[in-house]
Design a protein that fits this description.
With 137 residues, this protein is an all-beta fold. It is built from no helices and eight strands. A four-stranded antiparallel beta sheet has the order 1-8-3-4, with no helix packed on it. Strands 2-7-6-5 form a four-stranded antiparallel beta sheet, with no helix packed on it. The protein starts with 25 loop residues before the first strand and ends in a 10-residue tail after the last strand.
Length: 137
């Protein structure tokens, strides 16, 4: 944890959520934004059901957590977003294509913060139909 005031403050509650990547079920990683409406494609190896993205190199504007899922977005372009760190209602804006093997950023970054040029982002994704370790009958 180190001795920094943000990550190891003795007077604050600390929470850690830890997951292990499982091939065909979940994937965690990072990408760099390019600031274009033709943003990066992130290969997952499965169709995502749920993706959460966070800009990591600054806590300034557009540094929110963003959730995209196929329960609310039943077709592309996925444009219904949730910001779990805010009390905002669901936002409608062109954002991401959820593909058969990953996701493609379709936002330039100004509204969603998902593709600001040169910014670093982390993501976690869970599969729509995990199948690698399925037990068939």
């Amino acid at each position: 944890m180190g001795d920094g005031s943000l990550g190891n403050n003795g007077s604050s509650t600390q929470v850690a959520y830890c997951w292990a990547e499982i091939a065909g079920f979940s994937k965690f990683g990072s990408y760099v934004g390019n600031g274009s409406a033709d943003g990066p494609f992130i290969f997952l190896g499965f169709r995502p059901k749920f993706v959460m993205i966070k800009k990591t190199d600054s806590v300034t504007a557009n540094g929110n957590w963003v959730i995209i899922d196929t329960s609310r977005n039943t077709y592309n372009v996925a444009n219904l977003l949730l910001f779990p760190n805010l009390s905002d209602a669901e936002t409608t804006v062109t954002a991401v294509d959820l593909t058969s093997n990953g996701f493609k950023i379709r936002a330039s970054g100004a509204v969603t913060g998902l593709n600001l040029s040169g910014s670093n982002f982390i993501y976690m994704a869970f599969a729509e139909n995990p199948f690698k370790n399925a037990n068939a009958r």
